[in-house]
Amino acid sequence: MKKVVVLGLGYVGLPLAVAIKETGKYDVVGFDISDRVLKAIDSGKPPFSDPELEERMKETKVQATKDESKIKNADFYIVCVPTPVTDLFEPDLGPVKSASATIARNMKTGAKVIVESTINPGVCEEEVIPVIEEVSGLKAGKDFDLAHCPERINPGDPRWSVYNIPRNIGATTKSGAEEIAKFYRTFIKAQVNVVSSLKVAESTKIIENTFRDINIAYVNELAKSFDKMGIDLVETIEAASNKPFAFMAHYPGAGVGGHCIPVDPYYLIKRAKQSGFDHQFLKYAREVNNSMPNYTVDLLQDGLNAISMPVKGAKVMVYGLSYKANVGDLRESPALKILKLLEELGADIIKFDPYLLDMSNVESLEKGLKSAEALLVATNHNEIKKVDFSKYPKLKAIIDGRNCLDSEKIHQLGIYYKGIGR
Ligand SMILES: NC(=O)c1ccc[n+]([C@@H]2O[C@H](COP(=O)([O-])OP(=O)(O)OC[C@H]3O[C@@H](n4cnc5c(N)ncnc54)[C@H](O)[C@@H]3O)[C@@H](O)[C@H]2O)c1
C-alpha cells in the first residue's frame, strides 16, 4: 500500500486526508505541529466546525501526529500549511519552508511532494526546492518530483467540496505531473488537469482569488458612489444579472475576510514587484476592500446621527463575528475591525455569533436584540434573516452590512435601515 503524508490538518488538509483514506488504497498519515489540532482529530472531531466532515471522520479515522518517525519514506507528501500575511501585509512563507524541511528530513528517493497551499508564482522553484534539496541532498526533477496542485475548497459550501472541484497540477517533470494526476484521480471525481509548469499552476489560484478581490472591490466602490446618489446598487446588480453573457454578479458588503481573498493578492503583488512590475490595480482593490469596515461604521454613525443618538454610549449589537455566513472561521474577519472601531468610538458593544459563542458576550441573538439600540450585521448567518424586529422596541437603527434583511419591513416598523449600497 502506498504511503501518503498530509502536512497541515486544517480546513484544507484534513478533508483531503480523509478523502484519500476513504479510497482504502493508501496508508494515510496526517502531520501537524499543533497539539490542539492533534487532540481534536484524535478524539474523532475536526479542529473546526464542519458537521459533514465530522460524520465522515466517524467512518474514516486518520492517524494524526507530530512525530516525524511516522512520516518517513512516504510515496506522496502533500503540503497544506497556512500562507498568511503579517500585520504589514507581507507574505509569510515560514510554514511552507518549515514543512518543506520536515519532508526533506524524512523523504526517500522517488517521492512526490505536492504543495496545495496557496502560493505566488515562483515559490516552488525559488523557496521550496532549495530547502528540500539542501536538507535532503536529493535533486528535484531527478530524485524527487515537486508539484503544485492548488486547493480550491470553499469551507461550508454544500455543493463544492474536495471530491468534486476540478484541479490543476504543474510539476518539475511531465511524467511526475502525470503520475500525481493519476493519484488525485483516485479520490477526486472531477477533472484533474495537467498544466505545463509549476509557475502556471501557482498562478491559477492566485488569479482566481485576485479576480474575486477585484470584482468585490468594484462593487464596494460602486456602493459608496450609489449611496451618495441614492440608487439601490443591489437591485441594479440583480437587474444587470439577467444579461446572459459577460456580466457576473458580485455583491458589496462590510468587508472581505478569510484566509484567501484578503491575503493572496499580496503574494502576487510582492512577487511581481521583485520582477519589476507594480500591480496598482490589485493594490487599489485591496485598499477599497480594506476600507469597508470603516465605511460600515461610518454608516452606523450617520444612522445614529439621523436619529439624534451619539454612538458613544449607545448599545450597539454586532451580529456575526466570523468572516462568512454559517461558519465559525474568524480569520481576517471584517467584524474584528468593526468591533475595534466601535470600541474606539465608545459604543457599548453587544457581540454575538452562534458559531463563536466563546467570543460572544450574550447567550443568544434574541437576548442581545432585547437590549440593543442599534444593530450592525457584520455576517449573514441564517438566523439573522428570520428575525421579527417588531419584537424589539428598543431597536432604533439597523446597519445591514450584508444586505440580507428585508429593508421594507424594517422601514415600516419605523426603524432606521441602511445597507451597503442599498
Ligand atoms: N481555508 C480555505 O478556504 C482555503 C481554500 C483554498 C486554499 N487554502 C489554502 O490552503 C492553505 C491552508 O489553509 P487552511 O485554511 O487549511 O489553514 P489552517 O490554518 O486551517 O490549517 C493549517 C494547519 O497547518 C498546521 N501547520 C502550520 N505549520 C505547520 C508545519 N510547519 N508543519 C505541519 N503543520 C503545520 C497548523 O497547525 C494548522 O492546523 C493556505 O495556503 C490557504 O491559503 C485555504
Question: What can you see in these coordinates?
Answer:
- With 422 residues, the chain is α/β, with parallel strands linked by helices.
- It has two domains: 2-197, 3-Layer(aba) Sandwich (Rossmann fold), CATH 3.40.50.720; 290-419, 3-Layer(aba) Sandwich (Rossmann fold), CATH 3.40.50.
- Helices cover 40% and strands 14% of the residues.
- The protein contains 14 helices and 13 strands.
- The strands form two sheets. Strands 3-2-1-4-5-6-7-8 form an eight-stranded mixed β-sheet, sandwiched between helices. Strands 10-9-11-12-13 form a five-stranded parallel β-sheet, with helices on both faces.
- Helix 14 (407-412) links the parallel strand 12 (397-400) and strand 13 (416-419).
- Helix 7 crosses helix 10 and helix 11 (292-306) crosses helix 12.
- It is elongated, with a radius of gyration of 24 Å.
- Bound molecules: nicotinamide-adenine-dinucleotide (NAD).
- Nicotinamide-adenine-dinucleotide (NAD) binds next to helix 4.
Name of the CATH first level of the largest domain:
Alpha Beta
Helix content: 25-40%
Number of helices: 14
Mean pLDDT: 97
Q: Tell me the CATH topology of the largest domain.
A: Rossmann fold
Q: Please describe the biggest sheet, giving its number of strands, its sense, and whether it closes into a barrel.
A: 8 strands, mixed
Domain module tally = 2
Relative strand content: 5-15%
Alpha-carbon distance between the termini?
Answer: 58 Å
Shape: elongated
Sheet with the most strands: spatial strand order: 3-2-1-4-5-6-7-8
What small molecules accompany the polymer chains? nicotinamide-adenine-dinucleotide
Q: Tell me what the CATH architecture of the largest domain is.
A: 3-Layer(aba) Sandwich
CATH superfamily of the largest domain: NAD(P)-binding Rossmann-like Domain
- Total beta strand runs: 13
